[in-house]
Specification:
Blueprint (H helix, E strand, L loop, with lengths): L4 H19 L16 H13 L4 H12 L6 E6 L10 H4 L9 E9 L2 E10 L6 H8 L5 H7 L3 E9 L10 E10 L5 E10 L5 H5 L3
Antiparallel strand pairs: 1-2, 2-3, 3-6, 4-5, 5-6
Length: 210
Amino acid sequence: MAVSIKGLLRASVLLFYPISLYWCQPASAVPVSIPPLMTAAEMLTQLNQRLVHSKNAPATLSHWCSQQLNNADAWQVILDTGRQLPPPAEVYQLLNIAPKTPLSYLKQRFMCSGKVVAVFDHWFRADMLTPAMQQALAKQDTALGSIAREAGFFRRSLSNNPLWPDEGSLPVFVMEHQAVIYRSDNTPFSFVQEHYTRQLLPRAQQLDPY
């Protein structure tokens, strides 16, 4: 049976009509889910757990700065030549040495994008440094913990103390960790006290942490 031109046109219009209605729907009709930013407390809790389980705190710190602050090229380790701190009383017992045994002291600052993100205080036995460790340490731009790990030493966490408050602005130091570094034969080499600053957080979390 023949179909008129008018009938073909009418059928074409009816076919196109529902398609045109679909494309003319407003874009807002499609729901979009965007996850909220993590709070300062959530980010610090996450970092704290990573450090507790880490075998190399400087490497964990460097990775965090690259991941969260988006600047892997601005990572620096700076030797602090300021005031020498006496060792805490418990250090001699932790290092299994007699009281008054001479210990070397080293303070290193960890920088990301020109800002201090952590400060490490080391008290260590210089007589246990290998020639390779001494050479690396003389360059003053590598973390002592990383140098020790390259020599086969390992780290054991002693304590971790969150310093951020339940509410209000963040203090300068938001975490304190303590650890002992051992030689591969389980001989204690170094006691390290680590302080982590609020600069580890993106600027938005520093200004409005909760």
